[in-house]
Predict the 3D structure of the following.
Amino acid sequence: MSSPPTIAPRDKAEILAQALPYIRKFHGKTMVIKYGGNAMTDPELQADFAEDVVLLKLVGINPVVVHGGGPQIETALNRLGKKGQFIQGMRVTDAETMEVVEWVLAGEVQQDIVGLINQAGGKAVGLTGRDGGLMRARKLKMIDNTDPSKEHDVGQVGDIVSIDPSVVKALQDDQFIPVISPIGFGDQNESYNINADVVAGKLATVLQAEKLLLLTNTPGVLDKTGKLLTDLTAREIDELFADGTISGGMLPKIAGALDAARSGVNSVHIVDGRVPHAMLLEILTEQAFGTMIRSH
Ligand code: ADP
Ligand code: MG
């Protein structure tokens, strides 16, 4: 909220002036932001995030927020004496877990974010994939990463069948800020738990977004020695998959990012959400940080 007192007025003015060309360039453009990791659990970072979203909207950019909720789901499961289980970065979702996922994401996390954005002066509206028929899904067929003849049953984890963005477009044209929970619905109106990074990637594609930002709890994609990789192409990503450098939650994150980059989203970044105002800095200043994902 408050800038560090060490910044001189001249430097502040400089920073503001620097934002102008970006504001002009991005006016009217859609930015899909996946909000997750620590940025979502630390109250100060939460407030920063909400303010950034409102500021973007005020200068004529259209932020669309997709949120995750791994830590919050884990806490709720633990309360019920359950423990989350993951296969290839996806949460194994039995019927009871699905209930918890839906309740935590749509009931708690989404509404918290909507409240924070509204407190910061915006008009946020929470949606799940069911609202306005936004996101159809079916059960994910998960093939083993190393043995393609093997399939994993991860329960009610969803694969996106289609996205109808009309509800999102209607809201953003009308000054609202959509906040989307990654829950899809199937032919029988059943619910599916979909990885939020995958949802953000697909949504960015369908909305023809200018940018996709995936806020997370690491500086970006790291190599085997822990060094930040500032730039990655599809081929380099394949190598990192093959040698096991990328694992866990980074697997669906990169998959979602690459999918968007390949489908024409101009810039795709994995950014450290622990840095205050990371999103604003990425969009409105020259500063580049995190990992940029390129299709080639
Ligand atoms: P989020 O809530 O942001 O989706 P995830 O836990 O799902 O967070 O995914 C981010 C995590 O992926 C990191 O915290 C890290 O533990 C893991 N990870 C696996 N491989 C890498 C890698 N090469 N570089 C950075 N993080 C990685
Ligand atoms: Mg994740």
